[in-house]
Automatic annotation (TrEMBL):
<keyword id="KW-0547">Nucleotide-binding</keyword>
<comment type="subunit">
    <text>Oligomerizes as a right-handed, spiral filament on DNA at oriC.</text>
</comment>
<keyword id="KW-0446">Lipid-binding</keyword>
<dbReference type="Pfam" id="PF11638">
    <property type="entry name" value="DnaA_N"/>
</dbReference>
<dbReference type="InterPro" id="IPR013317">
    <property type="entry name" value="DnaA_dom"/>
</dbReference>
<keyword id="KW-0963">Cytoplasm</keyword>
<feature type="region of interest" description="Domain III, AAA+ region">
    <location>
        <begin position="99"/>
        <end position="315"/>
    </location>
</feature>
<dbReference type="GO" id="GO:0005737">
    <property type="term" value="C:cytoplasm"/>
</dbReference>
<dbReference type="GO" id="GO:0005524">
    <property type="term" value="F:ATP binding"/>
</dbReference>
<protein>
    <recommendedName>
        <fullName>Chromosomal replication initiator protein DnaA</fullName>
    </recommendedName>
</protein>
<dbReference type="InterPro" id="IPR003593">
    <property type="entry name" value="AAA+_ATPase"/>
</dbReference>
<dbReference type="InterPro" id="IPR024633">
    <property type="entry name" value="DnaA_N_dom"/>
</dbReference>
<dbReference type="GO" id="GO:0005886">
    <property type="term" value="C:plasma membrane"/>
</dbReference>
<comment type="function">
    <text>Plays an essential role in the initiation and regulation of chromosomal replication. ATP-DnaA binds to the origin of replication (oriC) to initiate formation of the DNA replication initiation complex once per cell cycle. Binds the DnaA box (a 9 base pair repeat at the origin) and separates the double-stranded (ds)DNA. Forms a right-handed helical filament on oriC DNA; dsDNA binds to the exterior of the filament while single-stranded (ss)DNA is stabiized in the filament's interior.</text>
</comment>
<dbReference type="GO" id="GO:0006270">
    <property type="term" value="P:DNA replication initiation"/>
</dbReference>
<feature type="domain" description="Chromosomal replication initiator DnaA C-terminal">
    <location>
        <begin position="343"/>
        <end position="412"/>
    </location>
</feature>
<dbReference type="Pfam" id="PF00308">
    <property type="entry name" value="Bac_DnaA"/>
</dbReference>
């Protein structure tokens, strides 16, 4: 059925969309269910947003409404906990799949002050496995790129040496697999599997908290690997010392190599990430728009990506160009709250300081260019950064008519394209006001 859907879809959507979003999906059909596996959340959310209805229509058509459609992140590669036979390194080069996400590479990772240390350490580790920093621990809050970097290490190593035994595993999965192995009496196989790895990437170790048996087991695995100088990379949402209910010896062991933190990215980095993410899906995102979003979604990169996905999906759906106004609409519910935070007085003050004029000049009748230009810029910024209407903005600038505000905005828009000085000033001001 999925193959039928594929051929239909291939004819109905553009080939770039098909190749980007549909082709990576893997299908499992059984018991009245069609499960579509996406390689990562980005693809999954995208497919759900853009193609769910279409795919559902097609599956209903081909199955006479007997199939339920389910989306998951994953792949049809054999799942890890099949510890049925012992794999000895001398017998088999590879222990199995690595569970690495190919999209998470160093190339796709945008560097900024907030993550440069973590990125540099990760790249060192990928070049000098087991010899640079062992274990490498990347810690920081959720959605800041820890998992991405961890996969990037694995991908970089495999790109150079495909025979290296690398496994990425989430701590929660490690715990589940261990419990399963204990129940099935295959704990020795489980142990051997992990202890034979060249590189173990284990994500979100805070999940080991309160799970004593797993901590114990992991501690041994971990020590065995370190003794053999095999690389271990860990991530955690906290510094180990701050994880409650984690054995002391693990805490000190986890931080014994190189602990590096990853911080929330600053505005420029957030904007650069957005542009990178857009480029990956062949969307040309204007820097102004990227900054506009970056300024308003300050929390974490995952949220930022969600917002971007929404903007791109809306634009493709409506066939409209991604401008700031369009973005404002598309993200209306996400940003309206924050917009009220940049107030117009602050804009006027910042602009006046920037151009070294008096705040009162902005509202005055003066027609000197040294005054009118900053005034136009300030009006544009007010339009861009606040949710005030044109008449409101006119009022704030000495009771000017709303048509004056509109022409000021249009003028600045033109100048931003044609006059480097204006575009630079505008960009600088936008940046200052956005912090
Ligand atoms: P964490 O593991 O820290 O919770 P993730 O690694 O899952 O965060 O990152 C969340 C999302 O943000 C991923 O899609 C990732 O690609 C993206 N991301 C985070 N930081 C960056 C960055 N510096 N450059 C590019 N993408 C990033
Ligand atoms: Mg993570």
């Amino acid at each position: 059925i999925w193959n039928n859907c594929l051929s239909k879809l291939e004819n109905e959507i553009s080939s770039s969309e098909f190749n980007t979003w549909i082709r990576p999906l893997q299908a499992i059909e059984n018991e009245g269910q069609l499960k579509l596996l996406a390689p990562n959340r980005f693809v999954m959310d995208w497919v759900k947003e853009r193609f769910f209805v279409k795919i559902e229509e097609l599956t209903n058509e081909f199955s006479n409404n007997t199939l339920d459609l389910v989306f998951e992140i994953g792949s049809t590669a054999p799942s890890l906990p099949t510890y049925t036979k012992t794999v000895k390194r001398s017998e088999a080069k590879k222990v199995g799949p690595s569970f690495l996400n190919k999209m998470y590479t160093f190339d796709n990772f945008v560097e900024g002050k907030s993550n440069e240390l973590a990125k540099a350490a990760s790249s060192q580790v990928s070049e000098n496995m087991g010899r640079a920093y062992n274990p490498l621990l990347i810690y920081g809050s959720s959605g800041l790129g820890k998992t991405h970097l961890m996969h990037a290490i694995g991908n970089a190593i495999l790109a150079k040496k495909p025979s290296v035994n690398i496994v990425y595993v989430h701590s929660e999965k490690f715990v589940q697999d261990m419990v399963k192995a204990l129940q099935q009496n295959t704990i020795n196989v489980f142990k051997e599997y992990y202890r034979n790895l060249d590189v173990l990437l284990i994500d979100d170790i805070q999940f080991f908290a309160s799970k004593e048996r797993s901590q114990e087991e992991f501690f041994h695995t971990f020590n065995t690997l370190l003794e053999k100088k095999h690389q271990v990379v860990l991530t955690s949402d906290k510094y180990p010392k701050e994880i409650a209910n984690l054995a002391e010896r693990l805490k000190s062991r986890f931080s014994s190599g190189l602990p590096v933190t990853i911080e929330p990215p600053d505005m420029e980095t957030r904007a650069a990430i957005l542009m990178k993410k857009a480029a990956i899906v062949n969307v040309d995102l204007h820097q102004d728009v990227a900054l506009f979003i970056a300024k308003r979604i300050p929390s974490n990169v995952r949220d930022l990506e969600g917002a971007l996905r929404r903007v791109i999906a809306n634009a493709q759906f409506t066939g409209r160009e991604i401008t700031i106004d369009f973005t404002k609409e598309a993200l209306h519910d996400l940003i309206s709250m924050r917009d009220k935070l940049v107030d117009i007085n602050n804009i006027q003050k910042t602009v006046a300081e920037y151009y070294k004029i008096r705040i009162a000049d902005l509202s005055s009748k003066s027609r000197r260019q040294a005054i009118t230009r900053p005034r136009q810029v300030a009006m544009s910024l007010a339009r861009e950064l606040t949710s005030l209407s044109y008449p409101d903005i006119g009022d704030a600038f000495g009771g000017r008519d709303h048509t004056t505000v509109i022409s000021a905005c249009n003028r600045v828009k033109e100048l931003k394209e044609s006059d480097v000085k204006v575009s630079e000033d505008y960009f600088n001001l936008l940046r200052t006001l956005s912090h």
